[in-house]
Structure formats: structure tokens, C-alpha cells
Amino acid sequence: MKHKIPTILVTAYAVNPYKGSEDGTGWNMIIEIAKQQKVVAITRVNNQKDIEKYLSENHLDQANQLTFEYFDLPYWMRFWKKGGRGALLYFYLWQIGLVFFILNKKMQFEIAHHLNFHNDWTPSFLWLLGKPLVWGPIGHHPAIPKSYLINNAGKKAYLLDRLKWQVKKLFWRFDPFLKITRWKTQKIITINSSVKNWVGFQNQKEVRLPAVASSIPQIDTAQKELIEDKFNILSIGRFVPLKGFDITIKSFAHFYHTQESSVQKKLQLTLIGKGPQKAELEKLVVNLNLGNSVKFIEWMPKSELHHYFRTSALFLFPSHEGAGMVVPEALSFGLPILCFDNEGPGELMDRTCGYKVPYSTPEKSILEFSNYIDQLFHSKEKRKALSIGAKAYFKKYLTWERKGKIISQTYQDILNPELSKKDIYKKRKVTNSPLVTIK
Predict the structure, then answer these.
(1) Entry pTM
(2) Which of the two ends of the chain, N or C, has the fewest CB atoms closer than 10 A to its terminal CB?
């Protein structure tokens, strides 16, 4: 008897094969899911042009198992949305309209999967379809510690951040649709360990699987191109308080000013990104007397970042976020990671591929990051060992292929409830790592 391939309905607000972050996550996860299941993926109309362009120019073996549908609310319900402004409110409304779109199309499927956005305080409405529901990956951004935020962006930014937190708490506590989503969902895929503490659900519902991943670089592009007379430290992200670029610059400055002038000529900090804090960060570089040793580079396509990964010695990323989309890519190129010991980047690596600094005070953290930079600068052997560890960790835990397999196994756990827990755990091994592993 021929095995019937299940059809999964995947809804993903942000999907784009040419972008990174949430858009890239949506695309890569859908592509991987379609390798083992039939997929009907629904996303916004503004993603259609890039998706169809990519599909027309690239061969995908799973293309015959993948169908895209496009949906947006009518103009009168979205005229006020401009770029990122109002995105979360529109996302909330978009999901409600999406249910009627699916019902009108009379789509047939076995499981509904609410794929993104990745936040843990807005609900899904796919439970209205009456089919098994998978929710996630969803993540939790922990609050930036007070002293780190005030030192970076000031009291006004701190008060605004805490106001946003109060809004989130209102959703967690009072939004009935969030409670229903939590109750109706068969499996909840969580990005980090703190999701369950805030959303609250039974342990058996959780599948821990960070949303971030990367593709394995080709041998020629992954080859390091370190220049002997340069020691380049790389950091990538939006120039906003969440990313901790003030810690990055101050840590580098402390390390830089403890070196002889002949050594300082070899040192370079490269910051790639854009955002509202850029002018403040540039001023900080001047105030810390770092001269031309810090280079700001505007945001660029993902493919063009490869040169900077290849020519850097380590990746300094003291971000306070609950994810860290760029960490897997840095690991894939064998870059040792320096980050905070938190629920975000801190859960995406271990001691085999870098160092984690615990939260204490900004001054102490800066000193610890600086000391780790100094250690790695003076020890090629340690850099080499961590580089090997970074690549190994990436291949074991952080490839898109691996995530696709785990999600497919999650679907099978739902579709085959007759399997005993003993049989399921024969297929899946949970290690000390926060990342789920399938045998």
C-alpha cells in the first residue's frame, strides 16, 4: 500500500528567498518542510514577485510538492501601514482575514502550521479551521537589563522599552485568543528556553528548536582568508539598543588601548548594518579615540557578507535579543563567538565554539569581553580550536536541513498518535543542548 504524503498548510507572514532575518527563515523552513510533505504556503502579496522570480530561475526538487498562495487585507484595512510602522497590528488583523481566505478557497490539508512572526505575545487563529495546529517557532525577547539599556540609550529609551513590556504583559495575561491558541495547539515550537515561562503550556507540547539556521557554505566560500597583518573583529545587526553595539565598541576600545601602538595598527572592528543608533555609535567611536580602527559598512545582500566572514578572526555579538539570526552563519564560517550568556545568542553556541559572558554590570561585561578578545588575539591555537568547534557545532545543530527533519518528525508525532511515547523517544534524543536532536 502506497504511503500517503500529508499536506501541510503553512502560513508565514514574512517569506522571501532573497532576504535574511524573518523573511529568510520563513522561506528556508518552507523549502525544507516541502522535501518530505506536500505544502500549501500562504504569505503576503508583497512577497509574490520575489518568490515567483526565484522559483522560475532555480530548480527545486521539491517544487512539485510546494504551492504558494498570496493574501492581503483590502486596502481600506491597511492604508495606514507604512513599512514597519503598524506591522504587528496589521499581522494580528491579517491572521483573522486569513482564516476566511482559507475557508473560501476550500483548501484541503492535514495539519495547519502557523510559522511566523516569531513573537510569543500575538496569537494564531488557525485553530478555527478545526485541524491539528503547530505553532511556531515562537520566541521570547527577555527584557534588556536596566543598567545596560540606560547606559546605552538613556532613561527615555528605558521607559519606552518598559512600556512595551507592559503591553506584552497585557496580551499574555488577558488576550483570550492567545489563551485559546495555547490550549488548542498540538505542538508549540519554541526558539528559546524562556518562552514557556511566559506563555505557559504543558511540557509535552513543546519542541525546542531555534528558528535561526544557515546553509552549509561551499568549500571555496568557507575558506578563511585571514590577512596576517590584520586582526578583524566582526559584528552584524541593526543599530538599535537591543543589539548591544555600545558594548561591542567599548569592549573593543578597552582591548585596543591596552595594546602597543605597533599592535594597534593590526586591529580592526567591522560593524555591518543600519539603524537609528548609527550616528550615536559613530560619535562613541570618536569619543573613545579609536581613529580608523572601526569601520561602519551599510547593510548589504546576504551573499556579499561572505567576504567579511572569511576575513574575520572572531564574531563579537553582545546582543540582548532572544534569537540571533546571524550567529549560525558566523559559526558556519568557523568564527568563534563572543556573546552574553542569555536566552538568545547564548543558547546558540557552547564552550566548544566561543565564550559567554554573564550579565553583571556594563563595566564588568566590557572588561570580560575585552579579556576574551585579548586571549584570542594572542593565541592562534585557541582560535583554531574554537573555529573547528564552531563548524562542528553548526553542522550538528544549526542547518536548515536538520530543522526540516525535526519539524517533519513533529508532524508525524501528531498524525500517528498510536505511537507510544517509548517509540517516539527512540526516534528523538534530547541532549543537554537546548537544541532537539533526531537520531
Answers:
(1) 0.85
(2) N
